[in-house]
Amino acid sequence: MIASKDDLIRLLKAFSNAFGPPGHEEEIRKLVIEEVRPYSDEVYVDSLGNVIITKRGNSKFPKIMLDAHMDEVGIIVTHIDSKGFIRFHTLGGIDPRSLYAQKVIIKGKKAKIQGFIGAKPPHLMSQEESKKVIGLTDLFIDVGASSKDEVLDMGIEIGSVGTFDTQFKILTQNRVSGKAFDDRVGLVVLVSLFKILKDSDYNLVGNAAVQEEVGLRGARVAAWRIEPDLALALEGTAAGDVPGTPEHLSSTSLGRGPAITIADRSVITHPKILQTLINAAKESSIPYQFKKMIVGGTDAGAIHLTKSGVPSGVVSVPCRYIHGPVSILDLRDLENTIKLVKYFIEKISLI
Ligand SMILES: [Zn+2]
């Protein structure tokens, strides 16, 4: 019924490895369009770069918007000094502590350039300095250049953008690692649903959104065009099932199924959506969990406030270490998220 595990791995690998910081989603956008076009009636790229995917069904069914964002957290070049060191700012929420000593890829004008995030070496720090947490302004990117001109010759300039340099990996039978699972795993769910429901009577409009990580910007304008009857944001959300986190503060856990949001900082899940998700999971015996922390925001936050309001909710695949260089997820959670959203679409269409 759902795509084979091998196909899900193939898609997640391709999406995870693709480059796409906020506002620069060209590479991931191309992959999404290639994958979804055969399973839709219309694919449209709007003026901000959102990919709006329409699958028409029976007009008596509601128009359901499925949103997953294409962008990933990244960096933007703000200064290049005379010795060739690059200063930068973050695009989206990255803890500076997870940036130090990481590899990054910067998109130069001619090619992608690998860089390394450095700071003053610990053995050169004063005692006072070594006690302080390294902040963004202490960090720089070293691309091996020895002058500003050499950096410019590489095609890197003020405004060039970059991401973590991490390749997708299969870790164990069910667990994989890679960058940008938030929200490339949501895109895998979205594309898979269009494949599964191609010949169904349901009305689906997918939105592969731009610029979620900098303030839910793409979804905000896409929802105005789509005018959905209801919406689901499909996400990769933070898992906290790691040492040092008590269970009630762990938000979500790997392997326990899709995470249903009751509320976060951007939206309170509409009661009808929430109940239908829970019923769909129970009736089809799909394991599920609630996202236990009222933190973070998603595109549902922007979508539900569109025009006169759109009942909205969020379903997520739990991922450890999101917004860092490497995330880990459990493929069974991905499969169960696809199943849950499929049943949800069937149930909510018939209400
Ligand atoms: Zn996200």
Structure description:
The chain is an alpha+beta fold and 351 residues long. It has two domains: 240 residues, Zn peptidases (Aminopeptidase, 3-Layer(aba) Sandwich), CATH 3.40.630.10; 91 residues, Peptidase M42, domain 2 (Elongation Factor Tu (Ef-tu), domain 3, Beta Barrel). The chain contains nine helices and 17 strands. Strands 1, 2, 3, 10, 11, 12, 13, 14, 15, 16 and 17 form an eleven-stranded mixed sheet that branches. Strands 4-5-8-7-6-9 form a six-stranded antiparallel barrel. Helix 7 links the parallel strand 14 and strand 15. Helix 1 packs across helix 5, helix 5 crosses helix 9 and helix 7 packs across helix 9. The longest helix is centred in the last third of the chain and has 20 residues. The model has no long low-confidence stretch (mean pLDDT 95).
Ordered list of secondary-structure elements with their pairings:
Blueprint: H1 5-17, H2 26-36, E1 42-45, E2 51-55, E3 63-69, E4 74-80, E5 85-91, E6 103-107, E7 112-118, H3 127-131, E8 140-142, H4 148-153, E9 161-164, E10 169-170, E11 175-178, H5 181-196, E12 203-209, H6 217-226, E13 230-239, E14 259-261, H7 271-283, E15 289-291, H8 299-303, E16 312-320, E17 327-330, H9 331-350
Parallel strand pairs: 3-12, 3-13, 13-16, 14-15
Antiparallel strand pairs: 1-2, 2-12, 4-5, 4-9, 5-8, 6-7, 6-9, 7-8, 10-11, 11-17, 14-16, 16-17
The structure holds zinc ion (ZN).
Task: Give the tags.
single chain; 351 residues; alpha+beta; Aminopeptidase; 2 domains; 11-stranded mixed sheet; 9 helices; 28% helix
Structure, briefly:
This protein has 351 residues and is an alpha+beta fold. It contains 9 helices and 17 strands. The strands form 2 sheets. Strands 1, 2, 3, 10, 11, 12, 13, 14, 15, 16 and 17 form an 11-stranded mixed sheet that branches. A 6-stranded antiparallel beta barrel has the order 4-5-8-7-6-9.
